[in-house]
Amino acid sequence: MFQSVSTNRKPILLLSLLSIATALPLLLSPALGHAEDNVLNVYSYRQAFLIEPLLKAYEVKTGTKVQAVFANKGLLQRLQAEGQNSPADVVLTADVNQIAEFQDENLLQSITSPTLMTNIPPQYRDPGNMWTGLTMRARAIYAHKERVKPGEVTTYEDLAKPHMKGRVCTRSGKHPYNVSLLASMIAAKGEAAAQAWAEGVKSNLARRPQGNDRAQVKAIKEGECDVSLGNSYYFGKMLTNDKKPEEKEWAASVNIIFPNQDDRGTHVNVSAAAITKSAPHYDEAVKFLEFLSSDEAQAMYAAADFEYPLKDGVAVDPLVASWGTFKADDRNLSDIVAQHGNASKMMDTVGFDH
Amino acid sequence: MTRTLQHPEPPLYTANEPKGFKTLKFDVWAFGTVVIAALIAMPIFWVVGLALNSSGDIWAHLVDTVLARLALTTVLLMAGVGFGTFVLGTGTAWLVTMCRFPGKRIFEWAMLIPMAVPAYVIAYVYTDLLEYSGPVQGLIRETFGFTNGSQYWFFEIRSLGGAITMMTLVLYPYVYLLARAAFLEQSICVLEASRTLGKGPWESFFKVALPLARPSIAVGVSLVMMETLNDFGTVDFFAVATFTAGIFDVWLNMNSPSGAAQLACMMLLFVIVLIALERYGRRKQKFHNTTTHNRALPGFKLSAPWAALAFLACAVPVALGFGVPAWVLGSYALNFYEETLAADFWTFTFNSLLLAGLAAAITIVLGVFLAYSLRLGQVRWINGVTRFAALGYAVPGAVLAIGILMYLGWLDNTIDGWARGHIGISTGLIFSGTVIAVTFGYVVRFLSLSFGSVESGLAKITANMDGAARTLGAGPMSTLKRIHLPMLKGSIMTAALLVFVDCMKELPMTVVLRPFNFETLATFVHQYASDELLPEAALAALAIVAAGIIPVVLLSITIAHARAGHTQHVDAAPQHIPTPVQEVSP
């Protein structure tokens, strides 16, 4: 028995040797990558399918090779651990709180670029130029076309009022989009009012918070609820989803409402970018950020993602334009970032998700 | 076969060596174990180190608000999935191994397939089907003329119960795999003895086969529970607040990695206690065959109604855990294959296979080394060291990834600092952000899979084998090569499969540790799945499942053939000659 089986171990051994041999060139490749000069390295919290077209466009335009790592968490810790030897030049984040964390950990350096300062309005940039916003999205309210009467919901505050009982859907209160909205509420009206608001919305929920922003619109279409919170770009993505035509129907059943037009304005957030403190290619990084704020790249963002370009004069996508213009909360985003931790805890305190 | 009680066996390694001599000799086993264990445990130490930093008032906040709920939800989830996988895994393993019914030969390997389906994928698929706006409830409303949800009852898929069901469906194969291997390794003589002594098939199962398989089943269930504990994708999708969800909330929303590390350490402690309790529960038992009389399992022939029931018991988990998700993914893929193929699909597949294969090979070698070193039992404290090193599985992947980042970053920068100071050149980052880092992460995380599997396999080999080999003059290495490895073939293949499939699905570590411009199938699927756009990546998700099926089939064939006495022409003769069970144990 022993002899007959022991010969069969050879394939396993062979297989391991083979895989190690194949792996060797891969293992060595990063070390070789360092030697190149015409390179830009990006750590991105924004998804690859959104960012890659922009990276490609930059490569074509400049001949610089752009390398990227995409992740939804942990890039800050990676940059921190790699220290002064980190290859990363540029950090891209999906919202302003994420970029502020890099700033808090002292991982960024200030961006010296007159171009960037002209292209991006000051309320969407760090006052000390440690980071800059690139695109903007609104935290909108989606309301069923018939079941919600005109004027019934015009503010975030309305969502907490008694007439909305059992009619509100939203994703998890601990999702950064909702935490950020609550943070803006704290910044605008103080902790007590913000907490009362969160409690009011919770008591009006039609179902336990779940799913993403699209799933809430789907629930409105199906009659589970009448209104939901959702980022503005999802409206465009759903309306144009040829691959999944039912999403068009979801979106067709709702109106998009930009809340608080008569007071502080609609809560907005930005996707952001910064240059790392250890950036091996600082000049290249500045050029890349300038490119991202240029007409060309801003228009690409606008078309691909239905976000609002931050650069003045760059047209929004025609579909987005059809929703009308709106007044955005123009409080400096760093005030909202400052309340992020508080807001997150407040969601726990009111037990928003339970 | 013996179930020896209260007879501690003498350490094997010292059997024929004079006392006092061994202390002078360089012991490659002890040394190797310490080096490997230290290397593997390093990232966990860094996580512990991170936890020692202050996290401000986060604990007060957590205790006041969500901690009790997180703990309760987590315990319920683990208990539910643990129980579900135990019943499904052990039950089907017994049916398939010991009974004869239609389809048994197919179920032998088909039972394993659901493990290739990532939990977040199956969660996505069933939510799409079963939620209020899904086709199933839509059909119910249409059929009965309901207009809203308050007019009828339907279970909420995004719930604790939903999460338990989803995870049970894809995790039961872990228990099945180990339970089946254990049942196969049992000598039929023991069961026949039990039957001769007047026990029925049910009693023989509960009183003899199940207790004998306990070490393996315990390993299987504890793997499942650790996997459950660490899951983030599914619970996040279902909005079920578990401890792991809490860890990520503290880390990302409250900006406190050290608070997250503290929670992770608490969870680790919980796992250590659980494992210790299980081991304590069977501390004085040893389970192994002493008989060499094995032959093909005859199988209880089931009567028609029982056979139908057995068929259903096996068919339903496979249909729900694999059939339905594969069908839904397939229909998505038909719509969206262009997106996947336009991206570098074949490169992603190659990357996934390469990393998973590499990690499987390394963890097997290390797992065998550690488990065998433990068996040699030379140094008492090695036991603790080894078990600590195998704890990576009990830490959420993303938290472990931070430990690896910090450890490798420290290592790279230390080497660089030294090189700058002494030879005036910068070595830069040698390991960070390379394939080595990802592979290292896999090995740290999945070592316990191979270690646990090999260890439980070794436990079933009687020490008399070692004794005989050593008496005949073979050294430990030669005994391992000539006696144990051939007997462990099933366990080793099991371990290889577990690690391979888990690496194919692995996400949080791959994402954070990978080199520039490097995608695997799992990372590609994730960038869409994280935005609830799974259909766009359905082809890649199917590829992950398919890549898991191939080793599953290979393994299943190997396990069946690795069983002593399996080969038809050999066991033909002894089958009719009743042989006495020999008791050779001390």
Order of helices and strands of chain B: EHHHEHHHHHHHHHHEEHHHHHHHHHHHH
Overall pLDDT metric of chain B = 81
- CATH fold-type name of chain B: MetI-like fold
Instruction: Kindly report the name of the CATH homologous superfamily of chain B.
Output: MetI-like
Structural descriptors:
heterodimer, A: 354 residues, alpha/beta, D-Maltodextrin-Binding Protein, domain 2, 10-stranded mixed β-sheet, disordered N terminus, B: 586 residues, mainly alpha, MetI-like fold, two-stranded parallel ribbon, 2% strand
Could you please describe the fold and organization of this structure?
The complex is a heterodimer of chains A (354) and B (586). Chain A has 354 residues and is an alpha/beta fold. Chain A has two domains: 35-136 and 269-317, 3-Layer(aba) Sandwich (D-Maltodextrin-Binding Protein, domain 2); 138-267 and 332-349, Periplasmic binding protein-like II (D-Maltodextrin-Binding Protein, domain 2), CATH 3.40.190. Chain A is built from 16 helices and ten strands. The longest helix of chain A has 25 residues, at 9-33. The termini of chain A are far apart. Chain B is mainly alpha-helical and 586 residues long. Chain B has a single domain (26-40, 58-285, 301-418, 436-567), classed as Orthogonal Bundle (MetI-like fold), CATH 1.10.3720.10. Chain B has helices at residues 28-51, 58-64, 67-98, 104-110, 119-130, 135-144, 160-185, 188-196, 201-212, 214-230, 233-237, 243-253, 257-281, 304-342, 345-376, 382-389, 397-422, 435-459, 463-471, 476-487, 489-505, 508-513, 521-529, 538-562, 568-571, and strands at 2-5, 99-100, 285-288, 300-301. In chain B, the strands form two sheets. Chain B has a two-stranded antiparallel ribbon with strand order 1-3. A two-stranded parallel ribbon of chain B has the order 2-4. In chain B, helix 1 (28-51) crosses helix 15, helix 12 runs antiparallel to helix 13 and helix 15 (345-376) packs across helix 18 (435-459). The radius of gyration of chain B is 25 Å and the shape is globular. The chains are: A alpha/beta (354), B mainly alpha (586). At the A-B interface, helix 1, helix 2, strand 2, helix 4 and helix 9 of A face helix 2, helix 12, helix 15, helix 17 and helix 18 of B.
